[in-house]
Write a structure and sequence with these properties.
CATH class of chain A: Alpha Beta
Largest interface: A-B, 51 and 51 residues
Order of helices and strands of chain A: EEHEEHEHEHHEEEHEHEHHEHEH
Radius of gyration of chain A: 19 Å
Largest sheet of chain A: 9 strands, parallel
Structural class of chain A: alpha/beta
Oligomer: homodimer
CATH superfamily of chain A: Luciferase-like domain
Mean pLDDT of chain A: 96
Number of helices of chain A: 11
CATH topology of chain A: TIM Barrel
Shape of chain A: globular
Strand order of the largest sheet of chain A: 10-9-6-5-3-1-13-11-12
């Protein structure tokens, strides 16, 4: 079982973002030494009162600590950006990491961001699909001429080609069936988003498989599973220690309009549906259930939320490395 | 005299971009040890056959080598981007550098980039002016409501406020009088662009001063001078060693449409007008002429171009550090 670490890159207004940054740097070192495969971080804009560190700059800062781990962005909100920018930044990440970069792409969901960037939400899907097509051409063709519905490129090209050929793995996020089918058609792997139940994932793996077959493409090698994950000395202690910090994060998501969330979600309900929280044995059981039942082979775990003590996050990361090695 | 290093972040298609990257990392260490004040790099999109490393990711990668130097972007092509993105990225740089970041802003000039990003060249100035206004509000106000000609922000804000108050220094680039006046009204300093003669700079300093006074603002503390700079063991050797690499760069600029260039510029003519090339004594004289005659106090030097041997670039950087210390 591969494990990846989803990095903390945010905190509330009244907290110290410098501590978030130094914690992230330390977590990367600990994850590296605990045998993790990858580190990840996400993108948002104008999320006051939340303080948010931009992902590519943070990942680039962390290259000197990351050893052989793969660095991934999860995810670029594709419709907000021009494909030229997405391609240039991905090619640069691939260079800086020596070909250890994964390009995670998604539709986005936060209305305020679309309004700010002047992109109608109604164009999300058509922009996404066209952009991925343009990206792949930019990664592989010397110059590109494209006159599409949303984007125009007129006989120019990406000079800095990616290290990985034909391009860095493109992992596409999706929580609804249409998005999962899009991931099957366009992506090298499908990423879920922390917030899907076992049963929903089982269903979507079927949806993915059917669409993948229809597209005439082989099954992906990588099956990432996104999970909030906290390992404590006992099940009771684990819940006690992470309920405040992790629950608070989901109250924020609810306010931002992320799907599948009640306005005031209860921690027990969220933990039952979505979280890997418990002692080593019980988290190992949960991971095995998803691995053996559904075929996931790369757990991308977020193990740190605003308010959780750093030493507890580090211990949880070490435990997860240990569990992953045991599973093999 | 402060000195800054403008980093190499590009090469031609048939050359090794990994070498450019490792050279840049080494140059940063040498500049740091030679007493440089700052490092800089610029932004472009889709410049095939030139391979180009994106600036914020490169600068972030270099933080671990940069010591106490200031990191600057020169420049963000403002009209290509939403001010939300410009503000978020600048605030992140300010955090990652511990408040040692300078935000260089410019209009851009490359038609292909504007076409690709779907921004009419005719809107360059109005987008720039509006964006700078929005940026300053995002940096300082908790939430912003702005319904402008080009940008809309609806009661949301930048959670991650810059370390430097009220915001990182905003240095505005300009090569024509209108841009210099804009820099005087809107910026904390004015940046020239490698390609202005002594006489043009003298004139524009007057233009800047008048506009600055009309705007009721004090004179800037920083007077950056951008120069291609190469120091060799003799004047003859210096020219011989850098004419190919530096001349080639300007042939490219001519092809991209940068102002003030003939289609096939002659090196001697360019050197006479724009470059600081020679032995230590003659480059020191050139710097002193601009310092004493025009008041520039921060030379931002590019000392490496595709094709120049790294050891020569490093020696030139060391010599420049020595000259700057002598000037004091």
């Amino acid at each position: 079982m591969k494990v990846g670490l989803y990095l903390p890159n945010q905190c509330y207004a009244n907290q110290d973002i410098n501590t978030v940054l130094s914690n992230a740097i330390e977590q990367v070192r600990v994850a590296r030494d605990a045998g993790f495969t990858s580190i990840w971080c996400g993108e948002h804009y104008l999320v006051s009162p939340v303080q948010f560190i931009q992902p590519y700059q943070l990942l680039s800062r962390l290259i000197s600590e990351a050893g052989d781990m793969t660095l991934g962005i999860n995810l670029v909100v594709v419709p907000l950006k021009n494909p030229a920018q997405i391609a240039e930044e991905a090619a640069t990440m691939d260079l800086l990491t020596g070909g250890r970069f994964v390009l995670g792409l998604g539709l986005g969901y936060r209305e305020e961001e679309f309004k700010t960037f002047g992109v109608p939400m109604s164009e999300r899907v058509s922009r996404f699909t066209e952009s991925v097509e343009v990206l792949k051409r930019l990664f592989t063709e010397e110059t590109v001429t494209h006159h599409g519905e949303h984007y125009t490129i007129d006989g120019i090209g990406l000079g800095l080609k990616p290290v990985q050929k034909p391009h860095p793995p493109i992992w596409i996020a999706g929580t609804v069936d249409a998005a999962v089918r899009r991931a099957a058609r366009l992506g090298d792997a499908w990423m879920n988003l922390f917030t899907q139940t076992y049963e929903e994932l089982a269903h979507q793996i079927d949806v993915f498989g059917t669409a993948r077959q229809e597209a005439g493409k082989a099954a992906p090698e990588e099956w990432p599973l996104m999970r909030e994950c906290y390992i404590g000395s006992s099940n009771k202690m684990a819940i006690e220690e992470c309920a405040g910090p992790l629950g608070g994060k989901y109250a924020n998501y609810a306010a931002w309009g992320l799907g599948g969330l009640d306005a005031e979600p209860s921690f027990d309900e969220l933990a039952r549906k979505w979280f890997f929280v418990g002692d080593e044995a019980s988290v190992k059981d949960k991971i095995l259930r998803y691995k053996e039942g559904l075929g996931f082979n790369h757990l991308i775990a977020r193990s740190s939320w605003t308010g959780l003590e750093q030493e507890k996050a580090l211990n949880s990361i070490r435990s997860l490395g240990k569990i992953a090695a045991e599973i093999g």
